[in-house]
Amino acid sequence: MNDMRKIERDVKMTDSKITARDVNVYYADTHALKNVDVDIADKTVTAFIGPSGCGKSTFLRCLNRMNDTIDICRVTGQIELDGSDINAKSVDPVQLRAQVGMVFQKPNPFPKSIYDNVAYGPRIHGLAKSKADLDVIVEKSLRRGAIWDEVKDRLDQPGTGLSGGQQQRLCIARAVATEPEVLLMDEPCSALDPIATAQVEELIDELRREYSVVIVTHSMQQAARVSQNTAFFHLGTLVEFNETNQIFTNPQDSRTESYITGRIG
Ligand SMILES: Nc1ncnc2c1ncn2[C@@H]1O[C@H](COP(=O)(O)OP(=O)(O)OP(=O)(O)O)[C@@H](O)[C@H]1O
């Protein structure tokens, strides 16, 4: 390897926020994810695409150990966040999930006020010393969730009373309130109308300045709009991982090409 290529490779490796090596996932006897290797870059949006059932959500859930909550699920392999093994015995999954936050398909605000939805995480993780501190965190998080202006005058009202798009932005605010480094999003726009989808996509683009964002999406247009890197999964394997424009304009694998041209999936 010439020096230049070596330097490029080194830069790429040190830029990785998460590295996954030889990850396999089983649900009882079903081998759902096979030998996945991937590097998730920092301050970048990475999209996971692929046909239904190919393992996108399963792999996403590996990244903050949400699969631990599924009894029949077993994960093997190595996943590192900033070079530390997230599955090490010393790692508390609750702490990990504060660092690697998650936003789900269906907006799921707690049955609490808008304020308390956002304050919940900082409270349980002891991030605020006083009520004034907490107020600052709540406002900052709602601003990051691009929903502050819409809710600032009704912080004591229930989060469940907001529109679907507002609820999803509230859930994003809640996820960023614990100062995560990575945000995982599992089809975050699938329950939203086109206007709310556009708002959340705009927000994702903002969020990548501060976080590493990983998004599972069924929409190739969405992957193309919001992500810089894309991973294509098929039948439990990671078929191809590359810059998003390469995946969509010059796929290297025939399965990727079939998927993006609508022949499979
Ligand atoms: N909790 C579970 N128990 C048993 N099997 C599961 C569970 N969750 C997922 N699976 C199986 O694992 C495989 C991968 O599912 P996964 O939900 O990760 O795919 P996906 O690509 O995210 O699909 P979709 O796009 O439809 O959401 C599928 O065969 C699915 O049936």
Short description:
By secondary structure, the chain is an alpha/beta fold. It has helices at 3-14, 56-62, 93-99, 114-124, 131-144, 148-151, 164-176, 194-207, 220-226, 244-249, 254-260, and strands at 16-27, 30-41, 45-49, 73-81, 84-85, 100-103, 182-186, 212-216, 229-234, 237-243.
Can you give a write-up of this model?
- This protein has helices at residues 3-14, 56-62, 93-99, 114-124, 131-144, 148-151, 164-176, 194-207, 220-226, 244-249, 254-260; strands at 16-27, 30-41, 45-49, 73-81, 84-85, 100-103, 182-186, 212-216, 229-234, 237-243.
- It has 265 residues and is α/β, with parallel strands linked by helices.
- The protein is globular.
- The protein starts with a helix and ends in a 5-residue tail after the last helix.
- It has one domain (42-60, 89-260): 3-Layer(aba) Sandwich (Rossmann fold).
- The strands form 2 sheets. A 6-stranded mixed beta sheet has the order 6-7-8-3-9-10, sandwiched between helices. The chain has a 4-stranded antiparallel beta sheet with strand order 2-1-4-5.
- 43% of the residues are buried.
- The chain binds adenosine-5'-triphosphate.
- Adenosine-5'-triphosphate binds next to strand 2 and helix 2.
